[in-house]
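I hope you will forgive my troubling you with a question about protein structure. Here, with my thanks, is the record as I have it:
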Amino acid sequence: MANPRVRARLPLSARPLVWWLGGLILASAAVLVYWPGTSGDFLFDDFANLPALGRYGGVRDLQTFLYYLASGIADPTGRPVSMLSFLIDARDWPADPFSFKRTGILLHAVNGLMLYGILSALGRRLSADATRVRAAALMAAALWLLHPLWASTVLYIIQRQAMLAAFFVLAGIRAWIASRDAFDEGRPRAGWTWAIAAMPFLGLLAGLSKANGFLLPLLLLVLQVTVLRPSRAEDGPARRSRFLLATAPSMAIFAALAALGWEASGGNARRSFDLGQRLLSQPRALVDYLHQLFVPGLGNTGVFADSFVASSGLFSPWSTLPALFLVLAMALTGWGLRRSRPILACALLFFLAGHALESGPLMLELYFEHRNYLPATLIFWPVAWWLCAPGRYRTFRIAGGTAATLLLLMLTFAQATLWSDPLALARDWATRNPESARAQTYAAQQELSHGHVATAERRLVDNLARHPGEAQFALNLLNLRCQREMVARSDLEKAGHAIGAEGIRLDIVNQWLGSVLAPGSRHPCTGLPDTAVTELLQRAIPERPASAEEQARIADLLGLQALRRHQCHEAEMFFSVRLRAQPRPEAVQNQTALLATHCSPAVALGHLERYLDAGAPVARASSPALRMRDRMAESSWTRHWDELLEQLREDSSASQTGGEAGPPSLQDGPGSTATGSIDP
């Protein structure tokens, strides 16, 4: 191999414009292959994140724009760059999913083109064989770009966050390569400019798209110890830039991961596994990711991961220890071959480094396909480099690589076509994930919405028989029976058992009870007898609430139950307890509206005045982004309270003199939402 510092000149016969034309054809093929998926619909986390587009009456001016950017609920940052990108497709909610999916497909195609450019630039530093460099780069980019594993990233709208982070990371890598080239050519000013463009500028944009984008300096360090290895004669500016912008930030990343691990060692009530079990499970997840990458098919798990079992020991399940040895072997092999086989070493270490956050000490769910989108960008480069090597059988090797690319194209097209049909997609996921409660429940919901009531009912009944403690099955089955007005005592007993297994801390339990108890709700089970609802509510309440959030949830539900019984004094009392546990302005606004509507303006006025007189501080929001939103909204809330007090006083006076009074609007406040508190 050539000296890594030497940039080989491409001969005219290489025709780089022709190769770039091939890249454009490849990107266009990716767009066409994924296009059938644009007729699909929103899914799961889309509904948790995208409604922020309409939360403040749509993004229509600077104030609503700033509120919207600060309303992200993922990561401490709220992912504002990703939130900003969704404004390309809509500025209000509900919206049409087509535009979102179209933008995601185009972004994926652009990422493929950027990957081709990066691999070409890296290859030129390693070899003077321009044809091999370009051919290997194009083939590796094709194998990655057209892989069917990315269907659950490209066509799942909210996963634009993962693709956007990858976009800025790839841009940062390309800028970093340009900085190394500039330093090698004796242009230190240009070298520093490109290096700073990579880190921190593009690195910050990547991290503000999704937290794993903050791994950019670690990924750059991987490139530095493998394919970008400096010579001993490297000058001072190049060394300083590498230390300040790659090595030192990477050390900070390791320190942050260690701190997160220490924090997570205290436990997490939201997870059924502890930190040790998570760390034991991740090698199995990584090995399964690699299997899906190199043995592709139509059997992907899709967006469901809840059936992935945590490892409870080195031999439980038995694959835990072999997977751990394999991952350690990958790391040691990558480090050992960093000089002799830099491309292979780079691919192995880049894959592991790219998973350092989401497969590390953060107490996230154990497994998701989309986590491979960035780490796997270089995984096929060693394969393509070998296929395009000069030699006797080069033509046959390239033909084999081309055939593999065409196979991936057909598999991806089949996946995209499946994503165009929500019912077929749901049933396929349920078939491939028989132990996933989410997959089975989603399939039943899709069958019900398409009129296949008996099939949906049978699916829920069978799954509940196998998993009697699963609230998703029990409550969805009860919903179906309520809708058909065929509720039996056994249905209520099964629902009560499932509710009692997890209690109020489970979101689906809290949301279901809140929907049933809410006055005026159109939930199919609002017609259940009060005794039945009370029994289910009592099963959900733990003897000793463990957190302020649990206390707030319990008080909220008891307040709604009191309103359901027309007990206004008790309702106001429970709502006050909720505010003492978690004082949030959105909560008091919704409570005030409920009391004004179902009791009287005077009761609502008294509740609001007591809240304001108490001067309770606003409960600390769950992330810095949401806390920033709270600070921005302070003055708006003050104006809103003045307006609401005036309206309630007028309505109270009107009701006492026999006039008509109307409830305050839930949409008046700066943080209001028709479904309750934004950040309880």
Observations:
- The two ends are 59 Å apart (CA to CA).
- Confidence is low (pLDDT under 50) at residues 1-14, 663-668, 672-680.
- The first helix runs from residue 16 to 34.
- The chain has two domains: 15-264+277-418, 423-656.
